[in-house]
Structures are given as structure tokens and as C-alpha cells.
Design a protein that fits this description.
mainly alpha, 3 helices, flat
Length: 58
């Protein structure tokens, strides 16, 4: 999380969005980093839509 914060990622927004969406932090971080890299995020079974509070897919 410190590295993400250092490079300008809004970590608080990611954590808050993950909490509100009921997804794991690992899923939320994967979605945001995949979106930044322009690649699709891995989607675990049973998750759909977007992580609340982010523009990244869940």
C-alpha cells in the first residue's frame, strides 16, 4: 500500500471502495492496477460490476 500511495494511487479510495463493495482488498488493488496497465483485471467467480468508489472493474 505504501508503494501505491508513493506513486500517487489513492489508497484510501481503493480501501473504502473495496469495503463498500464487499470485495477483498486484493481484488480491488488488482482491478485498479490492471486498469492503469490497460489490461483486464482477473475476476474471481461470483464478482460482477465495478468496485464502488473507483472507475475500475471488479
Amino acid at each position: 500500500m505504501r508503494l501505491l500511495n508513493t506513486i500517487g494511487v489513492d489508497v484510501v479510495r481503493i480501501l473504502t471502495g473495496a469495503h463498500h463493495a464487499g470485495v477483498g482488498v486484493d481484488q480491488a488493488v488488482a482491478a485498479v492496477t490492471a486498469a492503469a496497465a490497460g489490461t483486464p483485471a482477473p475476476t474471481p467467480a461470483g464478482t460482477r460490476g465495478r468496485v464502488k468508489g473507483t472507475s475500475a472493474p471488479a
